[in-house]
Amino acid sequence: MTDIISPMPSNTPPFIDLAWFKMAQPQATRINCSVQHSCEVFEYDSLRWICTADGAVQSMLFTEDHSYPVLHYIKALLCSLVFVDKPGKMLNLGLGSGAIERYVESHHPEIAMTSIEPEVEMITLSKECFYLDSRYPVRNQSAESFLHDNQQQFDLIICDIHCPPEQPNPIETMTFLQNLTNALLPQGVVAINFLAESESHIIDMLVRLRQIFEQVTLIDVLRQQNIVFYCSNNPFPEPSELNLKAALPVYGNIQAETIISQLIWLPE
């Protein structure tokens, strides 16, 4: 493997993995932002990303198409759209750089979005460096606080919460999960991004989810490290029905046909 990355063809983002970053990071340009934050923003060959203090990539933008969801787990979270017919209301817990919002506003403008982000610096960063509309409303609040006080219900909830290693993630508590299910409409689906430490960690989380939700399926995004769970209290559509819907052109940018075909269906 060479040390130099060939430029990307226009409108064709590469598959992003650890090897790509090891090559790209030394060649990337650091983007200066007005906001003071522990994260840094880099750009290389039409890709711009947020790098956390511990070196993890939190979010990524394709500068040729701001609505394109580059990272595979973001595509997997967005595949929750396939599960619900004509969703009207969507809740995103964890703004990141606004990848979910940019995609939904561009491809599904009929969906009313509510976005929650606890860090005001991240909200500023998403609008200043990642092309989230400056007028887009984001509630500066923790997911736990929002769900605790929430009286609304949603067709879709996306949960992508990042916590420092020394802090417990609220998504692993029964109180948080119960508040999640309370925020779902009867036909609603929640998609949870889960950073797994081990196989037993995945199993423990799965047990918690099945105590709260009647339906749970999942996809292993990155070799048991990045799991996306799909949960509902309404029966999921049949796999054949989901596969047909996922093949529709409207879901092409999130590679829904591939992702839905890789779902791991659990026994009742």
UniProtKB/TrEMBL annotation:
Keyword line: Spermidine biosynthesis
NADP as UniProt keyword: no
Molecular function GO terms recorded: spermidine synthase activity
Any one Gene Ontology BP term: spermidine biosynthetic process
GO cellular component: cytosol
Recorded superkingdom: Bacteria
The keyword Nucleotide-binding belongs to this UniProt entry's keyword annotation: no
Family annotation (SUPFAM superfamilies): S-adenosyl-L-methionine-dependent methyltransferases
InterPro entries from the UniProt entry: SAM-dependent_MTases_sf (IPR029063), Spermi_synthase (IPR001045)
Pfam families from the UniProt entry: Spermine_synth (PF01564)
Entry-linked PANTHER family: SPERMIDINE SYNTHASE (PTHR11558:SF11), SPERMIDINE/SPERMINE SYNTHASE (PTHR11558)
Protein name: Spermidine synthase
UniProt source species: Candidatus Thiodiazotropha taylori
Taxonomic lineage from the root: Bacteria, Pseudomonadati, Pseudomonadota, Gammaproteobacteria, Chromatiales
